[in-house]
């Protein structure tokens, strides 16, 4: 795994935000009881990267979008967390306004 990947940092941030231990996160995501804590530790240290299926389960447990793990900038990471909390009609309106603004330029 690349050392400049934001995944280890974002995973730790999301886990701490939920107040979960590495072991509890792993167990809640369906990892084997004996390897749950070591696997999450390896992911957070950047030694290994979870496959997409595992990352999706981690995202579900942590209540973050999968894209959050790949956000290279803190501002984008914050945006992704906020975006998932916005009701669908507001999302649609916001996207329409952003597209209109882009098209004006």
UniProtKB/TrEMBL annotation:
<dbReference type="GO" id="GO:0003677">
    <property type="term" value="F:DNA binding"/>
</dbReference>
<protein>
    <submittedName>
        <fullName>Helix-turn-helix domain-containing protein</fullName>
    </submittedName>
</protein>
<dbReference type="InterPro" id="IPR052345">
    <property type="entry name" value="Rad_response_metalloprotease"/>
</dbReference>
<feature type="domain" description="HTH cro/C1-type">
    <location>
        <begin position="11"/>
        <end position="69"/>
    </location>
</feature>
<dbReference type="InterPro" id="IPR001387">
    <property type="entry name" value="Cro/C1-type_HTH"/>
</dbReference>
<dbReference type="Pfam" id="PF01381">
    <property type="entry name" value="HTH_3"/>
</dbReference>
<dbReference type="InterPro" id="IPR010982">
    <property type="entry name" value="Lambda_DNA-bd_dom_sf"/>
</dbReference>
């Amino acid at each position: 795994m690349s050392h400049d990947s934001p995944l280890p940092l974002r995973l730790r941030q999301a886990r701490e935000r939920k107040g979960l231990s590495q072991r509890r996160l792993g167990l809640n995501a369906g990892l084997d009881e004996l390897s749950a804590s070591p696997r999450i530790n390896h992911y957070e240290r950047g030694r290994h990267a979870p496959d997409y299926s595992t990352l999706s389960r981690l995202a579900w447990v942590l209540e973050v979008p999968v894209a959050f793990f790949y956000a290279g900038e803190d501002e984008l990471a914050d945006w992704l967390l906020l975006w998932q909390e916005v009701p669908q009609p507001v999302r649609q309106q916001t996207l329409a306004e952003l597209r209109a603004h882009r098209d004006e330029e």
